[in-house]
């Protein structure tokens, strides 16, 4: 059960990003040097566009303007809002202050996590999935960066990958009619559906991880993956594109 692409989009992207980050290696100065977002205003503007666009992404998977599409829009909104607030409070408790970057990152985590479940769960399920996404993705992001020092610059694996896995798994739980969902196929129990969801998760991780690794190695052999230290120091915008912030 994957209504709008939790496996083919989010788990796939997350695993590919993790493999790419490990094969490519860390940026110069990571993690000792702080690397904050270049333009937080643009970040928030982009996040707002994502939130609105996600309604079409998820609800459009109903392929009709019907009740399923309407409920999908509602649970998408609930999931994103719940995860955003949960991430904000996690930051507030752990670091003493919330951040706008954290709030929008939590929103994206909620959107990615609710995606596979969006056409199958009700408002209660969406709320629980959103809160779980905010908690799990927050701690996954901090663990990846602060403990493992994996240089996933956009937190694609801990946000989209982990979120996609959680959403895909919890779809098998909150799709139950007793929890406000649409129910399972005839003769399928919650346990059987959860097992099926887990199988889909493992299959996606294995397929994407192996194929991404092979493709990256092929690129490395044919043209190389990394620029030189001198080019990285000077800046890729200038070296590769002859662009600077003053040209924009």
CATH architectural designation:
Orthogonal Bundle
Main β sheet profile: none
**What fold name stands as the CATH topology?**
Ammonium transporter fold
Number of DSSP-assigned strands: 0
Overall tally of domains: 1
Determine the strand fraction and express it as a percent band.
under 5%
In CATH, the homologous superfamily goes by the name: Ammonium transporter AmtB like domains
Mean pLDDT: 95
Main CATH class: Mainly Alpha
Sum up the overall morphology in one term.
Answer: globular
Helix-strand sequence:
HHHHHHHHH
CA-CA gap between termini: 44 Å
The computed structural class is mainly alpha
What are the segments in which pLDDT stays under 50 over at least 5 consecutive residues? Answer: none
Q: In a few lines, what is going on in this structure?
A:
This protein has helices at 6-24, 40-59, 67-95, 100-114, 123-147, 156-174, 190-222, 229-234, 236-241. It is mainly α and 248 residues long. Helix 2 (40-59) runs parallel beside helix 4 (100-114).
Characterization of the model:
This protein is 69% helix and 0% strand. With 248 residues, it is mainly α. It has a single domain, classed as Ammonium transporter fold (Orthogonal Bundle), CATH 1.10.3430.10. Helix 5 runs antiparallel to helix 6. The longest helix has 33 residues. The radius of gyration is 19 Å and the shape is globular. It starts with 5 loop residues before the first helix and ends in a 7-residue tail after the last helix. The relative contact order is 0.16.
How are the secondary structure elements laid out?
Blueprint: H1 6-24, H2 40-59, H3 67-95, H4 100-114, H5 123-147, H6 156-174, H7 190-222, H8 229-234, H9 236-241
